[in-house]
Amino acid sequence: MRAVVVVPVVKQSRPRTAPGDSQITAAPQRSNEARLEEAAGLARAIDLEIAEGLIVTVNQPRPATLMGTGKIEEIKALLDEKDAGLVIVDHPLTPVQQRNLEKEWGAKVIDRTGLILEIFGRRASTKEGTLQVDLAHLNYQKGRLVRSWTHLERQRGGAGFMGGPGETQIEADRRQLQDKIIKLERELEQVVRTRQLHRAKRRKVPHPIVALVGYTNAGKSTLFNRITGAGVLAEDMLFATLDPTLRRMKLPHGRTVILSDTVGFISDLPTHLVAAFRATLEEVLEADLILHVRDMSDPDNAAQSHDVLRILSDLGIDEKESSERLIEVWNKIDRLDPETHDALFERAKGRDNIMALSAVTGEGLDALMDEIAKRLSGVLTETSVTIPADKLSVVSWVYGNTVVDGREDNEDGSVTLEVRMSEAEANELERKLGNGPKADKEDWER
Q: Which Gene3D superfamilies does the entry link to (predicted)?
């Protein structure tokens, strides 16, 4: 389908940053051209052909149509000229505005929220993702049931001889939507319980968790694949991946950690989606370390970073906490010119919480892995451990979770290892060797 993308620039809109924001007091402003390019990219993500894109200045938003009559007539002529049957308005539209614009233009109209929901609906591949998208879609549709078609105004008769006027069709449709929403919310409650069980099992097998977050198309999935060797879809496309993925990976010195790839963030993320995907996004809260991946080749990466930090703040990760367990990954430096590339590397060298790299070429990746290992090592204690002959299966766990400096195979079949480990790893080893129940085995690759 051919589509026209319209980016309204509302002059009297309120600033995005609300009072009390804990992360950043003033949001970097995006250029109008960048907004148009992002909106067009969202449309292309669902295989739409962009016939035209235009930026429209709105001095005073109109309750009925958002834009003035002159611009509406201009866009109507453009639709006829380009033979386009869809208009994407990169701005929230009320149900009345959407209905009126469709009447004026004689074309289908969707706003930014509807477009993102459409993308998520196509990308969801697991049952959990589908449930979350369906719930967000129903909550969005519930507000769109306006009296714009005659069949929504018909009355259904009440029950019994003296039945009242009954309910209108729109009321019946709204009730059916609410029933579906309640059903989906119950199913998602089961998803939340399942995730909590998975987290409990991970605590019993205490591998640290590293979560990747970032603006959509920042290169998270490419970095995920580079580190783990996984085959997660990674394309130069907004929201190329949606469902979260977890994989094991080895750090320098052999320690095993779990790497989690999450859904990409975006500016003005619909509240329906934030609420529906909270069970998924809360995986970030459980992470021992968060890698905030930024596309440094994008001129608007500062504004994108602000949006990511705001969502993290909404999830409950405040500024102080994020500084302790968040590393900024300045990605896509291979796309920069040599002078900018070198300057960026110099800036990153002077900061403990910033790593510059290219997930495509691998430049800077070893330094990132060393920094992750350093952050997760905690206070390491040197000790000597003897593994009895009947517990030799524990040796592989020691190699995978601690730093082994030496090994001696004894005549009685036991093995003595010189290791460095944290207090948590020491407690886990004691449990395995001796006295507690065997650790649960968790299949991470799902």
A: 6.10.250.2860, GTPase HflX, N-terminal domain (3.40.50.11060), P-loop containing nucleotide triphosphate hydrolases (3.40.50.300)
